[in-house]
Design goal:
Strand order of the largest sheet: 3-2-1-4-5-6-7-8-9-10
Number of helices: 18
Structural class: alpha/beta
Radius of gyration: 26 Å
Largest sheet: 10 strands, mixed
CATH architecture of the largest domain: 3-Layer(aba) Sandwich
CATH superfamily of the largest domain: Ribokinase
Bound molecules: the ligand Cc1ncc(COP(=O)(O)OP(=O)(O)O)c(N)n1, 4-methyl-5-hydroxyethylthiazole phosphate
């Protein structure tokens, strides 16, 4: 399902070369854009003659026609993102650098570059003069470069075989981020890519697929990243989405001629087995990967209506109405008062058979024996997850994007919160509202873990949120800011219960 309606598909350009065999180049890029809900435009740099076995030859377009394509598109169909692929000509590379210098700042598009310097069948497109233009003129205009290991070595001037140092050098030349593709390290069982971004570094690994129908792999990965960027995802998220898209396309690759066949373009990836394992390379996310032996108690699903209240006084108001699950999220008060409220809330929860989650204060939750703990992203780094699991408490984790969701899934918590879905007045959020399309994708990916939607959800939006496939709906102001909070709770609870009862039938 595309992020936008048919009236507003984001426009993505590919500036690359034609593969008459249809598996790579411009043809693969356009398939990828379409599958990810974008409208693709193509600026053709060269026409190659190739099939599934070999590249037989190529001819570049004239410099005049190259620039005319760029200008004509810019006038009427400006891009949200541009993918650069094979440009086997020095003059065209120089022209492109000059054109990007002139227009990038004004039009604010993202540039993803796949420096196709040789074909997987062994054809060499790169000459020294082209490498110089890449280094000196193009890299400073690139937001993400996606070299494979041979391309990384060619582009870097470092003789060392150390990939990270070579990538660091390319970033010094000016490209903001580098994704080192590990596909060529065929001696390893997993295929592992390293993302070196402005403020994040991580590795993504997935089982190496035996399918030999892998023509156009690099083209598809870079164009999927561009498409996800055009859909408004941050660069790190786009890399993760694209890697999952590629795994899905590779898993279903098919024969065309007698050589490496083509990838199968499908749709937005939501299948857990295609999702990469994310390992954080920097301190910030240390400890975020689940130690294998950690296991959190499960929740009986669906979670249903999940009120979040800020005091034990609010909890006492709701308890006679028999909520199934409540979160106590205290944000003010002295340490002594907070502990008193948590202790009292846990005692009350036992009397009422309530599943009570404590926000933030995981030590107190363990001390008093709460049903569970809810932690945000910041809390994850400092909390002792092993202690929470060992005490038998459930764990809920907040997420606000694909990177956080991917990490949270690896921890295998009791539930994952997805937010904020709509604008909320209750909390200042540093992130953007996620909206319903993303919520649906996230919930589909989490088919194996309970999910809770949160943020700006009220009676008017309840049905569309439930329709996205979450197993619970968390609300604050839809209850506590209403004139009749008890009545608001009862109405919401009845509607949520009806929804899940209907689903089970
Ligand atoms: C169900 C649910 N989802 C998200 C949150 C937000 O938690 P967190 O990120 O820890 O932020 P604060 O609540 O501490 O502001 C939540 N509390 N509950
Ligand atoms: C705590 C929190 N975390 C993400 S949104 C949010 C507040 C949700 O409140 P409301 O339901 O009133 O929008």
């Amino acid at each position: 399902m595309p992020e936008h309606t048919s009236e507003a598909k984001p426009i993505v350009w590919t500036i690359a070369s034609s593969d008459c065999g249809g598996g790579a180049g411009i043809q693969a890029d356009l398939h990828t854009f379409a599958a990810l809900g974008c409208h693709g435009c193509s600026v053709i740099a060269a026409v190659t003659a190739q099939n599934s076995i070999e590249v037989v030859g190529y001819e570049s377009v004239s410099p005049a026609l190259f620039v005319t394509q760029l200008n004509c598109l810019l006038q009427d169909m400006p891009p949200k993102a541009i993918k650069i692929g094979l440009i086997p000509d020095v003059t065209l590379l120089e022209q492109l650098a000059a054109w990007l210098t002139q227009h990038k700042a004004q039009h604010q598009f993202v540039v993803i570059a796949d420096p196709v310097l040789s074909s997987s069948s062994g054809y060499q497109f790169a000459r020294q003069s082209q490498l110089c233009i890449w280094r000196q003129q193009l890299l400073p205009l690139v937001d993400l470069l996606t070299p494979n290991l041979p391309e990384l070595a060619l582009l870097s001037t470092m003789p060392t075989p150390n990939d990270e140092m070579q990538a660091a050098q390319l970033r010094q030349f000016g490209c903001a981020a580098v994704l080192i593709k590990g596909g060529h390290a065929t001696d390893q069982a997993d295929s592992c890519d390293h993302y070196l971004g402005v403020d994040q570094q991580f590795s993504l690994s997935l089982p190496r697929l035996c399918n030999t129908h892998n023509h156009g792999t690099g083209c598809v990965l870079s164009s999927a990243i561009a498409a996800a960027c055009a859909q408004g995802y941050a660069l790190a998220d786009s890399v993760i989405i694209a890697r999952a898209y590629l795994q899905q396309a590779l898993a279903n690759g098919y024969a065309t001629g007698n050589g490496a066949g083509s990838l199968q373009h499908h749709s937005w990836p939501v299948t857990p087995s295609y999702w990469p394992l994310l390992t954080c390379d920097n301190e910030q996310f240390a400890g975020a990967t689940q130690p294998d032996n950690l296991s959190f108690a499960g929740m009986t699903t669906p979670i249903g209506l999940y009120p979040v209240v800020d005091s034990v006084a609010w909890l006492k108001r709701l308890l006679p109405l028999e909520p199934d699950v409540v979160q106590l999220r205290i944000k003010q008060g002295s340490a002594a008062d907070i502990e008193r409220q948590i202790a009292e809330a846990v005692l009350l929860s036992r009397d009422y058979k309530l599943r009570l989650f404590i926000n933030d204060y995981w030590q107190l939750a363990i001390k008093y024996g709460a049903y569970g703990v809810h932690l945000g992203q910041q809390d994850l780094a400092s909390a002792n997850l092993a202690a929470i699991a060992a005490a038998g408490l459930r764990l809920g984790i907040s997420t606000h994007n694909y990177t956080e969701l991917t990490r949270a899934r690896q921890i295998r918590p009791s539930y994952i919160a997805l937010g904020h879905i709509f604008t909320t007045q209750t909390k200042q959020m540093p992130s953007k509202p996620q909206g319903l399309v993303r919520l649906k994708y996230y919930a589909a990916l989490c088919r194996d873990i309970p999910t809770v939607a949160i943020g700006g959800i009220d009676a008017t939006r309840l049905d569309e949120v439930l329709a996205c496939g979450v197993t619970g709906v968390a609300v604050v102001s839809a209850i506590t800011a209403q004139q009749q909070p008890e009545q608001a709770f009862l109405t919401l609870k009845q509607r949520v219960e009806q929804h899940y009862a209907h689903q089970i039938k």
